Amino acid sequence: MLGFLKNPVVVTVEINMNLVALTVMGLISRLWGLSYPRAVVFDEVYYGQFVSLYMKRIFFVDDSGPPFGHMLLALGGYLGGFDGNFLWNRIGAEYSMNVPVWSLRLLPALAGALCIPLAYQILVELQFSHCAAFGAAVLILLENSLITQSRFMLLESVLIFFVLLAVLSYLKFYNLQRHSSFSGSWWFWLLLTGIACSCAVGVKYMGLFTYMLLLAIAGLHFWHMLGDQNLSNVSLMCHFLARGLALIIIPVAMYLSFFYVHLTLLYRSGPHDQIMTSAFQASLEGGLARITQGQPLEVAYGSQITLRNVLGKPMQCWLHSHTNTYPIRYENGRGSSHQQQVTCYPFKDVNNWWIVKDPGMQQLVVSNPPRPVRHGHIVQLVHGITTRYLNTHDVAAPLSPHSQEVSCYIDYNISMPAQNLWRVEIVNRESDTDVWKTILSEVRFVHVNTSAVLKVIIFPFQLSGASLPEWGYRQLEVVGEKLTKGYHQSMVWNVEEHRYGKSQEQKEREVELHSPTQMNISKNLSFMAKFTELQWKILTLKNEDTEHKYSSSALDWITMDTNIAYWLHPTSGAQIHLLGNVLTWASANVAAVVYMCLSLWYLIRRRRKIYDIPEDAWQLWVSAGGICVGGWVVNYLPFFLMEKTLFLYHYLPALTFQILLIPIVLQHLSDHLCRSLLPKSLFSALIIAWFSSVYLVYCTFSPVTYGEPSLSVAQLKDLRWKDSWNILIRKQ
């Protein structure tokens, strides 16, 4: 029974020492002196603000992309015990002692270091030699720009890590496809492909480019499988469903999970609330929630309400009126009705309150029981403080003469009767009998007499909206726009603050309007509703693009005609720049040109039935190009279509793929063009000399990669290899 104990239990482990050595060197190059400089470096001033908000659980919106990358940076702060108390207002500001600099920079540095063994394994999985794979890893190891970008609280190294992990995982899955489909390792690498793709997209939307590339490659591979007569229909269906689950369903689910965690963590009101809807703001702790919590849900006749425009940009604003009237004549000579002004005001104010009145009754209080207002009902809107009725008529608006003026009606007894009936249309209704609800209902007001819709005027490309002149206190213009089939958010309003009016007397009502609401009805948004709104804001919110000192065009990146000064020591000449290894960048461009020229040559020759290389070598050449050249193309060309401020670091994902192409081309030239021993020996000697030169260039620029040692003025001038580079030299 115990016979199995007669023989020892033996565990055999294979360790790739190349991989171990590369990983160790990568960790040393990225982690060495990580806390230096102990000052805010370039975009740390940007990402650090979000880390602080995470630590304090305060909601924010970042239009640069999804929240997963920010959460990873915040994780570093959490592990280091950061309390979020630091003012991120200036590049170069010294970090206070409560900021765990090493911990905040750790995850990007680890991601950058792990890109090196990933590059090695990718070339191995592409069926290239270990020598070529080692060369690719060394080039990534000695690439100054990748080192710089990975040593600070930035996201490019994290993005590149997940992109390379996705590529490696898919290649491992594809290679297992031939002999062990649906095995445990097959499922592992397929699922990891989808997870890595989702993480790449979750860090930055640039990750979507590689994700789409891998989907296209997977689709092409499956198309080839359809022609395999050895596979049954059931087997093909299983392959299709497995890929759909791993490459589409799981990435989508993970993407949603990033937002779920993000919204769960950030439950407190913050400075970015104002661009969100009232419903979203009310779901956050503090801020609007303190005002709206417990408000009546259903708007009834006699309700006292404030109306917020749903558009929320360029700024949030509320329907507003005050005792001032429109000028009798405008500066251009046009006349007005001289009625009481109605505007959209970007601040909370007692003059934002309106009373919903039943046109058939005189009372301005809510009856018992309340009579709710439904879709299609006719109402009058009475200004709470001045008790004048919201009105529009066939008089040109002040700034928009093709639209109708909106005013609060004053009876001048000059044969201009009131036109103050409005039809309530609930835009997001589920049925035609829906009740008008606080915060949740998005409504538009259609004027009964003229069919004009109440609208705030927003001029395209103007960040401040249509501001009235001094007589209108620079508030936003509100007009009556002729009803069309479609609608714009500037025509849609929602009730933000709401109470049931109890005071019929005007003086008592004014006191009531100044008092906070106290009722016991509340409503929270579902996760999907919050996700949809936040995702839409991220995609559509555009900050004003300004020309940055270190911004550049995509054409500048290929030849590295630009650089970015990340940090300058306040007293010495020590500085950090985003500068690449010049020889590596030039070689990557040459490799791309050689690859495309050789591919074109092979294609033309193959068309003529002339085969210069074996079929398996041709398939290897094509598959490597699909990954490396394809990765470079999809991560570079889209920037020519983007209307945003661009920087050199945007090129780094594309550069990484281009660097992987260098040893691929070198091995191909050695294997198929150098056919005899002498050319192979000479070619090998040239490669060794070239790698030595790459190392020398790395050493030359390492002082501005790591920020030390400090260089003299003469040494800094020697580093300006191109006139377009901005090396910082202090005036003596």
TrEMBL record:
Pathway(s) the chain acts in: Protein modification; protein glycosylation
Family the UniProt entry places it in: Belongs to the glycosyltransferase 39 family.
EC number(s) reported in the record: 2.4.1.109
Predominant place of localization: endoplasmic reticulum
Spans through the membrane: 15-33, 67-88, 100-120, 154-174, 186-203, 208-226, 246-267, 582-604, 620-641, 648-669, 681-701
This protein's encoding gene: Pomt1
InterPro entries for this protein: ArnT-like_N, MIR_dom_sf, MIR_motif, PMT-like, PMT_4TMC
Catalytic activity line of the entry: a di-trans,poly-cis-dolichyl beta-D-mannosyl phosphate + L-threonyl-[protein] = 3-O-(alpha-D-mannosyl)-L-threonyl-[protein] + a di-trans,poly-cis-dolichyl phosphate + H(+); a di-trans,poly-cis-dolichyl beta-D-mannosyl phosphate + L-seryl-[protein] = 3-O-(alpha-D-mannosyl)-L-seryl-[protein] + a di-trans,poly-cis-dolichyl phosphate + H(+)
Subcellular location: Endoplasmic reticulum membrane
Membrane topology qualifier: Multi-pass membrane protein
PANTHER family documented for this protein: DOLICHYL-PHOSPHATE-MANNOSE--PROTEIN MANNOSYLTRANSFERASE, PROTEIN O-MANNOSYL-TRANSFERASE 1
GO MF terms, alphabetically ordered: dolichyl-phosphate-mannose-protein mannosyltransferase activity
All copies of domain MIR, residue ranges: 296-359, 370-427
Source species taxonomy: Eukaryota, Metazoa, Chordata, Craniata, Vertebrata
GO cellular component entries: endoplasmic reticulum membrane
UniProt keyword annotations, A-Z: Endoplasmic reticulum, Glycosyltransferase, Membrane, Repeat, Transferase, Transmembrane, Transmembrane helix
Gene3D superfamilies, per the entry: 2.80.10.50
Source organism of this protein record: Chauna torquata
Broad enzyme group: transferase
Name of the protein in question: Protein O-mannosyl-transferase 1
UniProt xrefs under SMART domains: MIR
A Pfam family it matches: MIR
SUPFAM superfamilies listed in its UniProt record: MIR domain
